[in-house]
Amino acid sequence: MLPVLLKAMRPRQWVKQVFVIAPLVFAKGLGDPAMVLRSIGAFAAFSAAASAIYLLNDLSDVEADRLHPKKRHRPIASGALSLGAAKTACATLALLALAGGALLGPSVAACLAAYLALNVAYTLRLKHVPYLDVLSIALGFELRVLTGAFAIGVAPSNYLLVVTLLVSGFLGFGKRMHEIALGTSSRVVLEAYDQRTLSVLLHLFALATTFTYVVYTLDPHTRATFGTEYLPVTIVFVEFGILRFLGFVQNPEEAESPTDHMLRDVFFLGNGVLWLVACVTVIYLT
């Protein structure tokens, strides 16, 4: 049963917890073993919380998923993982996440509790409210950044929080636009979305993300903090990632989800690695 449970926990989605690690990188904490260990602990705790929510979502949507051509193969919908086992795993993972957060401090535990509460509300109601569903997802990414910052005892950067909100909103609205174009999603909320408004929001969030990141790299305070003027060289990677994702959104026949596509795309993943290497090189070695 363990392999089936692990599949239902969607470990591939744990890559989203890079937002938990981001404060460590930009706080110049990679050389501090204690900070690194606490950051890894926060990553693990948030991954447990996220997997608990994936199980909760699948339990909530099990009947609809059984009618979906692809989702019916998910462990819970297909019957490979029993409802009882899924409920037990969901509760256990949530408790482990909260316990791990408590070990890292009350602020970390509070962020994890807020994430779980937000996503219970999302599963029960918010996912049916247009635009608020995407903003709820974006708030989840904000909580990832706050969790990572509180775990290592640093103040979260305002720039990092703003860019996180913008890029997660961009990804969320892009996913909704893609689902509408594809026409196979079972999300009832899509009927309440206006495609023209979505297109405007998608491109506004793309521009705002780029603009904010550019301003951040050019800010005199940023240069003084890192002691380098070379951070703007990383802009090209951010812009490529945005344009690549827009390409996924505009080609619905290539994949059911652009966010899933980007996690399988060699060029997108390679670009992300290059951005990280460039950031670490500029921040730590120049």
Structure description:
By secondary structure, the protein is an all-alpha fold. It contains 14 helices and no strands. It has helices spanning 2-8, 18-26, 33-60, 62-66, 75-78, 83-104, 106-124, 132-152, 158-182, 195-218, 220-226, 235-249, 258-262, 266-285.
H/E topology pattern: HHHHHHHHHHHHHH
What is the makeup of the main sheet?
none
* Rg (CA only): 19 Å
CATH architectural category of the largest domain: Orthogonal Bundle
Distance between the termini: 49 Å
Overall geometry: globular
Give the class-level CATH name of the largest domain: Mainly Alpha
Task: Name the helicity range.
Answer: over 70%
Corresponding CATH superfamily of the largest domain? UbiA prenyltransferase
Counting helices, strands and paired strands, the structural category is mainly alpha
- The domain count comes to 2
**Could you give the count of β-strands?**
0
CATH topology call of the largest domain: Tetracycline Repressor, domain 2
Contiguous runs where pLDDT drops below 50 for at least 5 residues: none
Number of helices, counting only DSSP H or I runs of 4 residues or more:
14
Percent strand equals: under 5%
Mean of all residue-level pLDDT scores: 90
